[in-house]
């Protein structure tokens, strides 16, 4: 799943490619992705892309006051074309969720670089369809945006802001970091990375962290995300997934050596996800109970 750094890089990429272009067409490939009906996607036709923003993991194309907003969810992705396929999108066929055609004639660098008709597809692999598209007059009309917690890369997000969020929370810190209404943009992968960098157990209770641990968590949050944004920045959309994977130190690396201490990265599995951690760096060498594994061993 794309998280804050990849969505930020996609926003930057779209800002560069699409700002100033006019929406020439919006084709819905899978009707289930469309979460709003008024205004309809056709209302975007003829409007100029004036800005591209990120809210948590949501991308927001501002077109003269109407917003095309999407959330890529777990298996969604954006595919950019310098020349969009001419054939209209066929609903219900393949991974195509939404196709946006742009007219960039006479506007900015995109027009100079691409003589064809540019645009992008939103695609979603697999059978679990979670990708969501909204056409709204204000981003706040999207429930997932209205309820977002603070952005961890915002200037106003300082160590006191994080301490305020953690104070009194009985949630495990792993779950808290992933909760979009608490902190916006962090998901399963970067929460593993942040906790590893902060040398904290994923199961530590947020409200019981000591001042020193809160400081470590804050520093790790900012450094891991800033580093990932820098690594993703300037890359074309198609390279972002590999860049994300290559930057991971524990996430998705079960059984491999921790790059900090050499201990073996361990995993805890849940029904539909898993977390990875380094026992030496994060839990004083203790192995966290893996319920799935213990069940198999019974
Ligand atoms: Zn380690």
SSE blueprint and pairings:
Blueprint: H1 4-18, E1 22-28, E2 49-55, E3 58-63, E4 66-71, E5 76-81, E6 96-103, H2 108-113, E7 119-124, E8 132-136, H3 143-146, H4 159-166, H5 173-178, H6 188-198, H7 211-232, H8 240-247, E9 266-269, E10 274-277, H9 279-282, H10 291-297
Antiparallel strand pairs: 1-6, 2-3, 3-4, 4-8, 5-7, 6-7, 9-10
Helix pairs in contact: 1-7, 4-7, 6-7
The protein binds zinc ion (ZN).
Total beta strands: 10
Q: How far is it from the N-terminal to the C-terminal residue, by CA?
A: 33 Å
Give the neighbour order of strands across the main sheet.
1-6-7-5
Based on CA atoms alone, the radius of gyration comes out at 21 Å
For the residues shown, what is the average pLDDT? 92
Low-confidence stretches: none
Strand content: 15-25%
Total helices: the number is 10
Bin the helical content: 25-40%
Quick one: overall form? elongated
Structural class: alpha+beta
Q: What compounds sit in this structure?
A: zinc ion
Order of helices and strands: HEEEEEEHEEHHHHHHEEHH
Give a short account of the largest sheet: 4 strands, antiparallel
């Amino acid at each position: 799943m794309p998280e804050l750094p990849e969505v930020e890089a996609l926003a930057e990429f779209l800002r560069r490619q699409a700002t100033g272009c006019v929406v020439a067409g919006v084709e819905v490939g899978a009707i289930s992705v469309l979460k709003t009906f008024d205004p309809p996607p056709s209302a975007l036709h003829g409007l100029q892309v004036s800005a591209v923003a990120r809210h948590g993991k949501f991308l927001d194309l501002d077109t003269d006051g109407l917003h095309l907003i999407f959330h890529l969810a777990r298996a969604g992705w954006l595919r950019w074309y310098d020349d969009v396929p001419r054939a209209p999108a066929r609903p219900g066929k393949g991974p195509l969720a939404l196709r946006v055609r742009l007219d960039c004639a006479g506007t900015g660098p995109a027009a100079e670089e691409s003589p064809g008709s540019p645009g992008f597809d939103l695609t979603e692999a697999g059978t679990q369809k979670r990708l969501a598209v909204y056409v709204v007059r204000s981003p706040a009309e999207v429930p997932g945006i209205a309820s977002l917690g603070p952005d961890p890369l915002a200037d106003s997000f300082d160590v006191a802001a994080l301490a305020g969020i953690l104070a009194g929370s009985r949630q495990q810190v792993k779950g808290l970091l992933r909760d979009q209404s608490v902190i916006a943009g962090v998901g399963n992968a970067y929460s593993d990375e942040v906790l590893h960098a902060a040398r904290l157990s994923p199961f530590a209770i947020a409200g019981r962290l000591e001042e020193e641990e809160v400081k470590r968590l804050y520093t790790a949050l900012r450094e891991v995300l800033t580093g990932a944004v820098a690594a993703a920045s300037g890359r074309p959309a198609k390279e972002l997934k590999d860049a994300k994977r290559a930057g991971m130190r524990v996430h998705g690396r079960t059984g491999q050596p921790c790059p900090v201490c050499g201990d073996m990265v361990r995993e805890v599995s849940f029904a539909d996800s898993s977390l990875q951690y380094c026992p030496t760096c994060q839990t004083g060498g203790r192995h966290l109970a893996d319920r799935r594994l213990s069940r198999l061993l019974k």
